[in-house]
Design goal:
The complex is a heterodimer of chains A (570) and B (140). Chain A is α/β, with parallel strands linked by helices. Chain A is 43% helix and 7% strand. Chain B has a single domain, classed as Rossmann fold (3-Layer(aba) Sandwich). The chains are: A alpha/beta (570), B alpha/beta (140).
Chain lengths: 570, 140
Amino acid sequence: MSIDVPATPAALPAKTNPEKRDRPVAAASGFPPQTDYGYVLKPVYGPQDVAGMDYQRDLGDPGQYPYTRGYHATGYRSRMWTQRMTAGLGSSSDANRVLKQYHEMGQRGGICVISDRVFSSCIDPDHPMGRKEAGILGWPGCSLLEFEELMQDIPLTGQSITLLGSCAPSSLRLAYVVALAEKRGIDPREVHGGVIESPFENYFGQTDPQPFDLNLKLCLDCWEYVARRGLRMRCNVNSQHFQESGGNGAQALALQLAMLEELFGRLIRERELEFDDVANIPYELLSIGTRFFEEIAKMRALRRMYARMARDVFHAKKEKSLHLLTATHTSGRTMTYQQPLNNVVRCAIQTLAAAVGGCTAIDNATLDNAHSEPSAFAARMSLNTQHIVAHETGAADVVDPLAGSYYVEALTNQIEEQAYGILAEIDKLGGMIAALEAGYIQQMLSSEAQLKFQRVDRKERLVVGVNHLVIPPEEEEFELPIQELHADDSESIALRMQAWKKTRDQEAVRSQLARLHADARKGDRFNLMPAIVEAVKAYATAGEVFGVIRLARGLSYDPFDMVQCPFELH
Amino acid sequence: MDSEMKVIVSMIGLDGHTTGGEVVSMILRDAGIEVVYLGVNQTPEMIVRAALQEDVDAIGISSHASNYTLIEELVERLRDNGMDDVPVICGGNVPHHTGARLLSRGVAAVVLPGSSSEEIVATVRRLARKPAAGLQAGGA
C-alpha cells in the first residue's frame, strides 16, 4: 500500500467574529433570553404579537392549506407516528438481531438503519481503509448480500424501510430494495420508505469521498428512477445534519427550502419531470432539540413555507404535492457526556415537542449518544419515552394543541421571517449550489457552531452537568453500559467480505460492471440506475460499482487511490 | 507569524465529523497557536508526514466514535519515526475505559466533551513539545 498524496492542509473557514453579526447584542446586564437563532424574547406575549394574523390564510384547519396545523384532520388519531430507533453497528447479522430486538421493545411502523463509515465512503470492508472501520457507527452494507442478511426474517412491506447514510450509496440502497423485493416475489412498488440522501449532506458531516457533481447526478438518477417506475422510496433532504453540526433553526428552515428548490428545479429542467411527479419523493428529517416552543414553531413554520413554495413557485396541481413528509430525530447533539441519565429527561422533552409539533416518525437519540452507539438499555429507554408520550401524556389526542398560543404563533411567524431572510440571501447568490460554491453556507455553519460553543463556554447558555451543577467524574454514580466495536470485529467483517467476493460468479459481476462502465460514459443525464440494479443483483459491491463509475468519469477507481479495478471492463 | 507553537488538528480515517476539530482550531488560533488543519480522511502515515513537514509541536486528533486503533497506530508511527516528543492529544466523545487504554498506549491526553476553551488551550500548552534544552536561553 502506498500513499503518495501529500497531506495538504485542508481549508479552514476564515477567522470570524461571530458576535459581529446582525443579531441583537447581549444586554450589559447579561445574556437576554433569546431563541437559538438570536431573536430576543419578550417576557410575555399577547394579542398585539399576532396582530394581523388571519386564521384561514396563515393557519387553516389541520388538513387545510397552508397546513401550519398539520396535514391530517385528525392527526395521530388516524395514524400514530412511526416509533423507531436507528440501528446499525457491527455486522449485518448483528444489525438484524438489533432490529428484531427493537421490534420486541416496541418499535412500530418502520425500521431505520444507518450505514457504517465504510459503506458511506463507497469502499468495501476489505479495502485497506475499510478494514479498520467496518461496522463502526452503522451497518456495513456494501453488497446485496449484506442487505439480505440485514433483512433476514424481516418483512419489506407493511412498514417503512429507511436506510440512512451518505449520498453516493443511495443508488445502491435503492437497488437493494428493488433487488430483494424481486427475489422475494414482491412488486417493488409495494415497498415504502426512504433510502436516498441528498448530495448536500457532504457539507454537513454525512460525508462520502465522491465529487459533488457525481453525487448530484446519482441523486437525480435515483429520483427519476423512483418517479418513472412509481416506486415509493423517498429521498432524505434534511436539515438535521446541518443543525446537528451547529446550525440554528432559522438557518435550517432556509436551507431546507433552498435544497428542495435546487433539486426540484433540476429535475424539472434537466430530467423533464413535472413537479407533481416528484413532489412526494423528498422527506425532511428534522432535528428536534430541547428548546420546546421553538422546535414546535419550527415544525409548524416548515409546513407553511413548504406549502407556499410548492403552490407559488412550482405551481403544484395535486393537493398531496403541497405536503412535505416530516420525520424527526431528537437531537444527539444535546445528549451530554456528563451525567448521561439527564439525557433521558432531555429526550423526553424533545419527543414531546416532536409529537406536539406534528410529525410522521420519530427516532430518538439515546442517553448514551455522547459515549457510543445505543446499548439495548438506552434503546429501550428511548422507545419507552416515545410510548409514554404517545399513550400517557395525551399529547397525541388533539391535533396541533398549541395553535392560537400568542407565544407559539409569534415564534412561528418569527422563525419563518428569519428563514425567508436567509433564503433570500441564498437565492441572491443563485441558489443552494451556488451558495455552497461561494462558501456562504459553510461560513454560516462554521460561525454558528463557534457561537454555540462560546455561549456555553461563557455560561450564557446553561447546560446541566456541563457548565452548571457540574459534579466531578468520580461522583458519577451511574455506570453507563457501553456498546462498543473492537478492531477485530471490523477485521472479521473485512475477512468475510474478502473470502465471499471470490465465491461470486465472476463473469456475471464483470459483465454487469462493464455495462455500468459503458453507461456511465453516456453523459450526466443518462440514468445509471438500471445498470446499477443489474450489477447489484450480480452481487457487485459498493467499491466496485462506484469504482467503475469513477473510472468512466476519468477519476481513479478508488477514491483513496489504494486499490485497482480487479476487472477487465472492455 | 510569530506563534509560540504550531500544532496539527486532524480527523483520522473515515470519520467525517468536522465541527469539533474546526471549533478547537479556532480556539487555538485565538490563543495565538498556529494550527495546521488537515481535515478528513487522513491516514496515520499522512498525519506523520504532515507533522514532519510542518515541524509541529503537538498533534490533535478530533474523534467522533471509532475503534481508536488508528489513533494507536499514529502513536506507533510517530515512535517509528523518532518523533515521540510530539504528543498526540485526542479530543472527542471517548468512553472512559477507552480513554484509559489510549493513555496507556502513549496518547498524551484525552480531552472530553464539555471542556472549556481555557482547559483545551492549557492542555495543549502543557503537553506540546518544548524546544530542546540546549537551545533554551540559559539552559536548565
